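Quick review question:
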């Protein structure tokens, strides 16, 4: 007799928990709400960051032995040594969006940053 009552109570409790755990969450942060962003911010968020690009700048480090143009990540300040950088981006201080992967098992003459394969690069404002 006790067992059927226990099963009914358990079923009822699980149903209450399931209903209570369903909620509608909205974000009010402007960084996640494209409607509240202005021009450049909206393009940056939707056009590049959402597609996995990172903010960086081009830095001319040719004064260092064995170095040339490198990339500096905006978020961390970390230097990256790209495998190839198109001549169109050989402008010290140019702001860019990049996608990259880290190169492993290779030595660098420059030794001033992490060696990377540059998968994509775009100018940013």
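Suggested answer, residue by residue:
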């Amino acid at each position: 007799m006790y067992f059927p009552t226990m099963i009914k109570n358990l079923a009822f409790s699980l149903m209450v928990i399931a209903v209570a755990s369903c909620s509608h969450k909205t974000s009010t942060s402007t960084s996640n709400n494209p409607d509240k962003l202005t021009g450049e911010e909206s393009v940056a968020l939707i056009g590049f960051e959402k597609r996995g690009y990172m903010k960086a700048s081009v830095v001319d480090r040719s004064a260092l032995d064995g170095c040339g143009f490198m990339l500096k990540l905006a978020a961390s300040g970390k230097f990256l040594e790209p495998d190839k950088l198109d001549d169109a981006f050989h402008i010290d201080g140019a702001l860019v969006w990049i996608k990259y992967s880290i190169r492993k098992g290779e030595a660098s003459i420059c030794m001033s940053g992490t060696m990377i394969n540059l998968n994509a690069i775009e100018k940013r404002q």
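Why it works: DSSP finds two helices and five strands in the chain. The first strand starts at residue 54 and ends at 60.
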